[in-house]
UniProtKB/TrEMBL annotation:
InterPro entries: Peripla_BP_I, SBP_2_dom
Keyword Lipid metabolism in record: no
Protein name (record): ABC transporter substrate-binding protein
Residues covered by the Periplasmic binding protein domain: 50-310
Major localization class: other
Transmembrane segments: none
Source species: Priestia megaterium
Domain of life the protein comes from: Bacteria
Family, as annotated: Belongs to the bacterial solute-binding protein 2 family.
Keyword annotations: Signal
Localization annotation: Cell envelope
GO molecular function: carbohydrate binding
SUPFAM superfamilies referenced in this protein's UniProt entry, alphabetically: Periplasmic binding protein-like I (SSF53822)
Amino acid sequence: MDLLQGKSGIPKKILLRVNKITKENVDQYVQTKQNTLDEPKKLKKHIVLGFVQVGKESSWRAANSSSIKKAAQDFDIDLKFKNANQSIDNQIEAIRNFIKERVDVIAFSPVVQTGYEEVLKEAKRAGIPVILTDRELDFNDDSLWLTSIGSDFQEEGRRAARWLLGFTKGVKKDINIVELQGTQGSSPAVYRKKGFEELLKNNTNYHIIASQSADFTKEAGKRVMKEMLERYGDKIQVVYSHNDDMALGAIEAIEEAGKRPGKDILIISVDATKEAFNALFSGKLNLTVECNPLLGPELMKVILDYQEGKEIPVKIVTKEGIFSQDNAKREFINRAY
């Protein structure tokens, strides 16, 4: 119990895998809670959740928003949903409004890793627990949030690099990589980059020759890739994109430049959306690392557990895989996003 409550002296961020989301345990919990909701009232009051979404930057985000909205209905939680449109100022304003409204719980996916200290202190003083979803924060006082739910972004970067090293094993010549980063300062951009570089650093023939933010959008991915092609041309052998939408934009830019994505230039991305699977099937994408957006049921589970006085893991990590042209067809039928 001391470990979970952070009383052991071990930083919360070391305890990364306290619990994992799997389809089986979420389905079981949904059924259990539905049975509970059908019984006479056991909770003291109806729960009001204030949720602030990052924006609408990608198909992944749309699936994430839909999951949260549906899960709130399924768990009979009153959801107040706000969209920050990629603005930290909008998020902070929405959180402050939720504090004034005295919601029971606040949850949000931070635009970037810093800048929220003061508003979270306000929530703490008001006695309102805060839950992070998808993305994380990076400042000293991690008592300002109850838990975080989402992916291990650094491991996603490692998985991308691990596949590249295996796929190009035996190649002696230099391999030049261009990187399409997500929103600058966001936790997925920071840690997907860090994990990727971590595995490549001891392999001297792999070079990231350009790295630039394309803000997780298809349009910016296409624009930035076009600029990189104009500058580096045939020197580019690999594109590493921090999400599928940017990769899909890059694919369009590569085709317009007269090159074959997936063949002349290897394309690696993160998210594993249906659009990425279609690109795998057509041979234009080589790999997508899964990042599960369906966090709604686990978020509602944590809220109900907290209201019932149960211990809450400090970090809940989603169960995810990787998909290449070799195994994509087996998984596509199961895709919910």
